[in-house]
Design a protein that fits this description.
Blueprint (H helix, E strand, L loop, with lengths): L7 E4 L8 H11 L3 E6 L4 H16 L3 E6 L5 H15 L4 E4 L15 H28 L3 E6 L12 H21 L4 E8 L5 H10 L6 H7 L14 H12 L10 E4 L8
Parallel strand pairs: 1-2, 1-4, 2-3, 4-5, 5-6, 6-7
Bound molecules: nicotinamide-adenine-dinucleotide (NAD).
């Protein structure tokens, strides 16, 4: 009997094969959950990508469905939730994972558009999804929400102002909702990943590469022992394990935490 048998989970930003959204979807499905994989769809490739992730889970013996949802579009979220309730009749877990790295870069050059996308996707999108799922969780007697923040939600390093501001807001939202909905049996926690080897992690690495440095040298430098005591990047599955813990009954008395999954890395200033 899997830990998540008869549970229904929604995961946002789940289309990429190397992403934490997909790794978590697989982790939850392997433990028995029915998983709804969602992501923003901008073209045919995106659609195929998302559907392929759900099909992989089904091929491995799990229950999964793919639904296109842009987290900044409230009507798409509402349609997704209506579909989930119609198909499964319940909703137990939300992994609010979708995020945008556009708020990374030189503060003095940061555009209104970068600020807006950072805010709309990283914080408002998560709030939108929470607002949509909470009534269902409350009505059925409880649920668990896990928000994907970042070590940038706990401290600051240079050249990440808008991203950092949005991720601090994710931690704030997490604590506020934990405080407001604990009495109605909904637990709300956050994970704060550090250096995770995903498509986004690799893109950030390219961004942080110093002059004359190779990709491989930058990859090693960013996880030097004085930065990341465990001296390595993490696999997305290691974050998925932390999410599964916070979403499951083994963390039944934990709410409002922002859990670093960062190999001992300090969050910065
Ligand atoms: N990779 C890292 O090192 C790292 C570290 C800390 C935090 N994070 C956070 O982890 C989360 C997952 O990132 P990842 O590294 O797995 O990369 P990823 O690119 O696989 O995941 C991000 C997903 O968000 C989706 N997305 C973007 N805008 C969206 C929108 N408007 N609506 C719906 N989906 C949207 C993307 O399509 C993508 O699938 C993000 O919130 C990111 O900020 C990543």
């Amino acid at each position: 009997m899997g830990e998540f048998n008869n549970k229904v989970a929604i995961v946002t930003g789940a289309a990429h094969p190397m992403g934490m959204g997909y790794a978590t979807s697989r982790r939850l499905a392997e433990a028995g959950a029915s998983v709804v994989l969602t992501d923003r769809i901008t073209d045919h490739d995106d659609q195929e990508n998302l559907e392929a992730r759900a099909e992989e889970i089904v091929a491995a013996g799990g229950e999964a469905v793919a639904i296109a949802v842009d987290v900044t579009m409230r009507e798409q979220i509402d349609a997704c939730i209506a579909h989930v309730i119609d198909r499964y009749g319940r909703l137990d877990i939300l992994f609010n994972n979708a995020g945008s790295p556009v708020g990374v870069g030189d503060f003095l050059r940061m555009s209104d558009q970068q600020w807006d996308i950072s805010y709309q996707v990283n914080i408002k999108g998560m709030a939108n999804f929470c607002q949509a799922v909470l009534p269902h969780m409350i009505a059925q007697g409880g649920g668990a929400i896990v928000n994907n923040a970042s070590m940038s939600g706990l401290g600051a390093v240079p050249l990440m102002a808008a991203y950092t501001a949005s991720k601090f807001a994710v931690v704030g939202l997490t604590k506020a909702l934990a405080a407001e909905f604990g009495a109605r049996k909904v637990r709300v926690n956050a994970v704060c990943p550090g250096m995770i080897w995903t498509q986004m992690g690799q893109a950030e690495l390219e961004h942080m590469r110093e002059e004359g440095e190779t990709f491989e040298q930058a990859k090693q430098r960013l996880v030097r022992a004085d930065v990341v005591p465990l001296e390595r990047w993490a696999a997305p599955a290691e974050v998925a394990d932390a999410v599964a813990y916070l979403a499951g009954s083994r963390s039944s008395y934990i709410s409002g935490v922002a859990l670093p999954v960062a190999g001992g890395m300090a969050p910065g200033l």
